[in-house]
Every structure is written in C-alpha cells, then in structure tokens.
Amino acid sequence: MTVEVQEDIFSFAPMEGITNVVFRNAHHAVFPGTGKYYTPFLGLNQNFNLQKKEWRDIDPENQLGGDGTAKVIPQVLTCHGDQFLWAAQMLADRGYEEINLNTGCPAPTVVTRHKGAGLLENLVELEMLLDEIFEGIEKIRTGSGREMRVSVKTRTGMRSHEEAEVLMDVFERYPFSEIIIHPRVREEYYKGQAHPEVFAALAGRCGKKLCYNGDLYTAGIWQERKAQFPEVTDWMFGRGFVTDPALVRQIQGGKKLEAAELLEFHDRILDGYLEMGTEDRNAMFRLFELWTYWRFHFQGADKHFKKLKKTKNLADYRARVRELFAETDFVPGKYEGIK
How far apart are the first and last CA of the chain? Predict the structure, then answer.
C-alpha cells in the first residue's frame, strides 16, 4: 500500500492594515510560493454590506494576477449566523470557494461585542452560531457546483490553555475544512511566546485537518515545529512573513532575502497604493508601518530610519529609501518585536 505524502502548504495570515490586496499582489509577484493568502477580516454588520475598502479587497478581478498558483481566502468577523451566510453566498457568487471564520481576534473592541476571541467565552453560544452556519452552508454552492468550504482561525482559549481540549471538542463536531490554531489565549494577545506544546497535544488527539500559526519567524523555527508535529502540513505565517517575505523560499531550500527584491517589493506596494488613489501622505504611512518589520535587515541604520520617519513628501521619502539601501549594510534578519 502506497502512502501519499502531503506537501507542506504555506499561507499568509490575515493582518489588519497590512495584508490587503496591494500587499498580497506585490508579495505574490516578487516572492511566489505561498499557497494561500487570507484577507484581513471583513467586518460584517446588520446592514449586510461592506466598507468600500473591503469590497475592493475582495474584488475577484484584482487578486494575485489571476495566475491560479495561489488562493485568496476571505476571513469574516461576526457573531451572527445570518451575516455569515450572507457573506458566504456573496463570496461564492464572486468565485471564492472558502470562507474563514475569525474566532481569535483579541482586540477589546471586538471581544466586548462577542466577536473574534469573544466567541470562545461562551461555548453554548458558539455552538448555536456554528449550528446555524453549517445548516445554511449546505445550500450555498460555488461556481464549480461545490459546497462552500468553511475554515476557522482560533486560539487555545480565552484565559487558560486548559480550555483548549473542550474548545477543540466543539470545533471537531462540525465539518470545518481546516482549523487554524494560534496557540495563545486571548489574554496573551500576541505577547510573549506561542505555546507549540499545547498545539502538539491537540494535534495528537484531533481528527481534523489542522494548521499551525504562531511565531514562525525563521526557517529554523519552522523546521523545529515540523519535527515536533510532522503530521501537520499546513502552516500560517504572520509577523515573520512580513519581516522576511522570502521565508517560504528559504524553507524550500532557496536563497535568503536580498536587498534588491525587498526594494522591489517596497516599490510595488507603494505604487499599488498610489494607483488606487491613496493620497501620498497616507501611502507613506502605510509603508512606515512595514518599516517597523523590515528594519531588522539593516545594520547601523537608526539615523536613516529617523530621517525616514520625518519625511513630509513622497519625493523625499523615495530618496531616503534609496539612501537607506545604498548607505547601510543589508543583513537578512528576523522578527524580534516591534521597536
């Protein structure tokens, strides 16, 4: 009997304000190899509508160049089954084949509305929501005639990892296509270190397809996690991927991040914002946030970054970015926390 070996699939985590369509398209063009990109969550509401930027972010005509080598999976934030099913139908009508439910966002403004990680506080209400979702999803078909897939991104509890097994028992009762687990509880937010040992315990008892997400900052760390739970083939990267957009290539045995391609990535993102009509100053602010991750690759560049932050116009910004690349030492680094 031949045992089929599953290839590892790498995905980009949804990160609010960062991994939008401009970022995703630029990353896919410069650093191919990522299998799935999850959108920042769509904030569903009682009006059954989205914000303009959210409609733009899921426009099927503007996703990854349409080459079919990677998938975009929209994530939604809601605690109402009818809103979720509206979004699932809307996305299916636009050619999407999977929708992801956010049950992990730790932001207070989200949790107090019983959304995101707030759903983990009352498992009875969570089950009622999932009952409604999976009863309705059976009626929704994608363009290929298949049932819309539903995946979930979650944490290992609200306040304690002791909640993890009971929580997983709930998720296992439903036909999720995948359960993405970030092994931190809500109270930890993104602080400290993730808890892969908690994930390993769940992987050892769970019959569902699991995806690991948490502190995958280098190829070496990924190799450690792969050895720790070899049965897992789906991996989600967040801050580590933003910092080092060539990380998948390194995991697959390729070269480390190079200065020229990071500059190209930067320029594609900046130009992408400008092409969609973003004002110069706002486009620069978008890039300033990314520099809090990319700064780890530049040695002795504190003065350059101070000058960059003080930039007032686009022409000066472009010039100072060029100076940064030309006058400092580029040494591929890793995420070490936002400075």
Answer: 53
The β-bridge partners of 76 are 42, 101
Of residues 45, 16, 31, the one with CA closest to residue 249? 31
Cα distances (Å, whole numbers) of residue 113 to 12, 78, 124, 225: 26, 9, 16, 34
What confidence tens digit (pLDDT) does each residue in 298-335 have? 999 999 999 999 999 999 999 999 999 999 999 999 88
Task: Provide the whole-model pTM.
Answer: 0.95
Residues 6 or more apart whose CB falls under 8 angstroms from that of 283 comprise: 270, 273, 274, 314
User: Residue 93: which residues within 8 A CB-CB, separation 6 or more?
Assistant: none
Q: What is the CA radius of gyration of the chain?
A: 20
Query: E strands along the chain, which residues?
Result: 9-12, 36-38, 42-43, 71-73, 75-77, 98-103, 149-155, 178-182, 210-213, 234-237, 298-299, 329-330
Residue 54, φ and ψ in degrees, nearest 5: -75, -40
Let me know: does 286 contact 292? Beta carbons within 8 Å.
Answer: no
Assigned token pair, 43: 């904030």
**Is 102 in a helix, a strand, or coil?**
strand
Cβ distance 182 to 203 under 8 Å? Answer: no
CA dihedral of residues 20, 23, 25, 29 (deg, nearest 10): -160
Sign of torsion, CA 38 41 46 47?
A: negative
pLDDT in tens, 85-99: 999 999 999 999 999
DSSP classification of residue 31: S
Which H helix or E strand runs over 122? none
10 Å CB burial of residue 126 (0-12, 13-18, 19+) is buried
